[in-house]
Amino acid sequence: MKILSVASEVFPLIKTGGLADVAGALxxxxxxxxxxxxxxxxxxxxxxxxxxKTEVVATFDDLLGEPAxxxxxxxxxxxxxxxxxxxxxxxxxxxxxDATAKDFPDNWRRFAALSLAGAEIARGLLFGWRPDIVHAxxxxxxxxAVYMRxxxxxxxxxxxxxxxxxxxxxxxxxxxxELGLPPEAFSVDGLEYYGDVGFLKGxxxxxxxxxxxxxxxxxxxxxxEYGMGLEGLINARVADLDGIVNGIDTAVWNPETDPHIAxxxxxxxxxxxxxxxxxxxxxxxxxxxxxxxxxxxxxxTWQKGIDIIAEVxxxxxxxxxxxAVLGSGDQGLEGALLAAASRHRGRIGIVIGYNEPLSHLMxxxxxxxxxxxxxxxxxxxxxxxLRYGCIPVVAxTGGLADxxxxxxxAALSARVATGFQFTPINADGLxxxxxxxxxxxxxxxxxxxxQNQGMKSDVSWENSAARYADLYSSLLAKV
Length: 479
Description:
Mean pLDDT: 97
Number of helices: 19
Protein name: Glycogen synthase
Function: Synthesizes alpha-1,4-glucan chains using ADP-glucose.
CATH topology of the largest domain: Rossmann fold
Oligomer: single chain
Helix content: 25-40%
CATH superfamily of the largest domain: Glycogen Phosphorylase B
Pfam families: Glyco_transf_5, Glycos_transf_1
Number of domains: 2
Catalytic activity: [(1->4)-alpha-D-glucosyl](n) + ADP-alpha-D-glucose = [(1->4)-alpha-D-glucosyl](n+1) + ADP + H(+)
Family: Belongs to the glycosyltransferase 1 family. Bacterial/plant glycogen synthase subfamily.
Low-confidence stretches: none
């Protein structure tokens, strides 16, 4: 089976979040199920620099106003198609924002162009290769399904995966005439969304199937609390909605072979983690004592509950704990954490920014990872934590609820606990979970049991890839 994936970021070529990890890992996992996935992505400067050898396989004289080419390349086992459109993607900054972290004003055109290129590939643009299924990710690729619906490609099944419903790609109605779609596409059955153009809304309306990245999140987005204004549409399409929890690349995230950590270890050799703990203490200038180290590896935003971390930081220090934080985001939250670090030198360490190797060391050296997200479609950092014996302390929401088994009395007695969940998602809820974590940490055998059980968890893509393979097969059967 041939599948075209359309995504705005793909690890290891470029990454801002979990979308990239999924887009990079799923094709490799599907290969074991007899499926060939090619991934179309933008030709950002970082991507163009990393691809050693490319071949021009298609050209556009005018792709929504810019000349463009499609380049084919192989990279670390991935079959990549790059939309090389310098007018859209050859610019400083990140994939979506400029150097001042402001959204590029033409993001609507950039990612409509990516989607239109995907639809043309589905139409047969590439010599000798046409997909059986098209799989689009998030609002940046959602228009692929829209272009296919309104340009006569309704016989090829489409899947859209929502990685975070909060990001919808909503733009003013004045852009619609520039999209190259028939007038009827600007309707409630297409792109029209409260008078605006909704890229994600259009994808949710036109794709054959909708998936989210965890079963609990799939349930949550049918409610007003989590549906972000789209719950009505999602409820209307609930029969086509599936929640498939993400996996992680267990070759990249493997404490036995990880080149980014100070000393490899396994579930049977947890004492070796001490070397990584020492390296972490030195990296964050923390006191070298027996208090538990809690880490945060996250975007520093309200959604991620970082204001809750700032509120309980002093309390964690009072209880004898330490904090190591890696991330960037809201300046106010960055400032609150930096202020806490200045109040508690040796107890709280902060690194502002994104650092993939350091994130590996933090999972290998910290005792627990804090994830107090107000909503979390899946989350990957808790899966890394499970893999590395870094016990997750998580809000009971979305994929966090699906992947971490709370260390309540029954789970501890049955020896199946892998972490700590909490609700309500506020400072009091987090403190209650942390009290239980501090108590378990004071009993080394209990703590080691939770670590070992977490490290036994299957966080690979195998089960999830099988679910996607089954979904693709069921869609093809409807053609």
